[in-house]
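Dear colleagues,

For the upcoming journal club I promised to circulate an example of a predicted protein-ligand complex. I picked one with protoporphyrin IX containing FE because it came up in last month's discussion. The inputs are reproduced below in full, followed by the predicted structure.
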Amino acid sequence: MALAPTRERTAARPPSPAPTPSRGFWSSTLGKKTVMAVSGLIMLGYLVAHVAGNLKVFFGPEEFNAYGHWLRVMGAPVLHHHWALWIVRTVLLAAVVAHAVSAYQLSRRDLKARPTAYVHRRRRASYATRTMRWGGIILALFIVWHLLDLTTGTAHPGGFEEGKPYQNVVDTFSTWYGNAVYIVAMLALGLHVRHGFWSAAQTLGVGNARRERLLRTLADTLALVLTAGFVSVPVAVMTGVVS
Ligand code: HEM
């Protein structure tokens, strides 16, 4: 049987979507790395503000609870109560989703690209990739637990008091498991920020050797300040400095 002319045979195929610049950006490895870097930097900005706010616990219950109240009314009277907080929450949620999706897709791509299938039975990711992946999973689980503990109170030890974050923080760190969960998560956070910040800098362009040294020092300093600042709160409750 004679074949139909080429034009007729190809006409049956569904038309492929025209490539657009945004599709190309998202599907490229550099595009996904850029999304990871930018979403990571957004979360890092939140963490710097969060650790600074947490340190107010050292100034006593009035000041810390007033700060918790301000988080709900910030932006007023231009914005209605809680609106600014919900804007921050929405941006953070979008950053978490974008970061997790691009991390997952990049790690799938990385595994597929490894030419080691015949040497090892299983294709293995690099040490840094595995540390970042496990660190990310620990942090995701921690955030869920943290929200249930100190925001909704669902998993809070003792009676959760709405509008009394100082008392709630003291309750949490009066339990051995509260201290254990937070301290392990904060160490994972330090490692994740240290490597993640440096990776983000490389994606967005490091520049020269001097800037590279500066960015490495900045990554170490940020990781250290965040870990020490967050860990200081459970340690202060355990030692009775905050009670
Ligand atoms: C020792 C360490 C930490 C302490 C003592 C702490 C304390 C708190 C407290 C008291 C709140 C509730 C604030 C309020 O509703 O008034 C809160 C909320 C929150 N924390 Fe933490 N935090 C810690 C570490 C972290 C870390 C490492 C992350 C992220 C990786 C994080 C993410 C959040 C988020 C997303 C909220 C919800 C904010 C909101 O939408 O209301 N926290 N934290």
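Two points we might discuss: The chain has a mean pLDDT of 89. Residues 31-113+129-238 form a domain with the 3 helical TM bundles of succinate and fumarate reductases fold (CATH 1.20.1300.10).

See you all on Thursday,
B. R.
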